[in-house]
Amino acid sequence: VFLNGGPVIWSSKLMKVAATSSAEAEVIAAVESLKMASHFRGLLAELGMCDSECFNVHEDNRACKMTAESLKCHKRARHYPSKLRYLQDVHQNGSIKFHQTSTNDMILDIFTKALPGPAHKKYMETLTNDLRQSIVDMTISSDSQESPEGRAVEKRLQANI
């Protein structure tokens, strides 16, 4: 789960069941992530920080995305229908929106698997740059940009990126 450009909740753990396909593994992971994100959204709502009712799910597994967006349970998914049905329900009621994302753009893979050096460096740079930009944006929005001091702070922060 990302907030302001940085990961705030993530986990990597052994699955409780053995998945028989990558699509099943992705469905199970998506359901667990949505449970965690729903709880986090409740916390943000209590703090007055929740601005969206829809979760954006970035999925690199086309089969997972297609079965979750359809309304039927396919033959290959008949041994995990409850998790798949949960994903289909939350998609149908508009709580989640799937986005097909390239495997090369899944920056949180840095936390879940061993990566070659160049990919590791790329993901680290992406994470730190996104986080820096988010901090700059929050600082600028909280400072008065109309004042000379606010403009000076903005210039210093932009120069440090």
Topology:
Elements: E1 2-3, E2 6-7, H1 22-46, E3 55-59, H2 62-69, H3 81-92, E4 96-100, H4 117-142, H5 148-160
Parallel strand pairs: 3-4
Antiparallel strand pairs: 1-2
Helix pairs in contact: 1-2, 1-3
Biased composition (Basic and acidic residues): 148-161
Region (Disordered): 141-161
Protein name: Reverse transcriptase Ty1/copia-type domain-containing protein
Provide an overview of this structure.
The protein has 161 residues and is mostly helical. The protein has 2 domains: 2-112; 114-161. The protein contains 5 helices and 4 strands. The protein has a two-stranded antiparallel ribbon with strand order 1-2. A hairpin with a 2-residue loop joins β1 and β2. The longest helix is centred in the last third of the chain and has 26 residues, at 117-142. The radius of gyration is 19 Å and the shape is globular. The relative contact order is 0.13. Residues 148-161 have a biased composition (Basic and acidic residues). It comes from Octactis speculum. This is Reverse transcriptase Ty1/copia-type domain-containing protein. Residues 141-161 are annotated as: Disordered.
Summarize the structure.
The protein has 161 residues and is mainly alpha-helical. 52% of the residues lie in helices and 9% in strands.
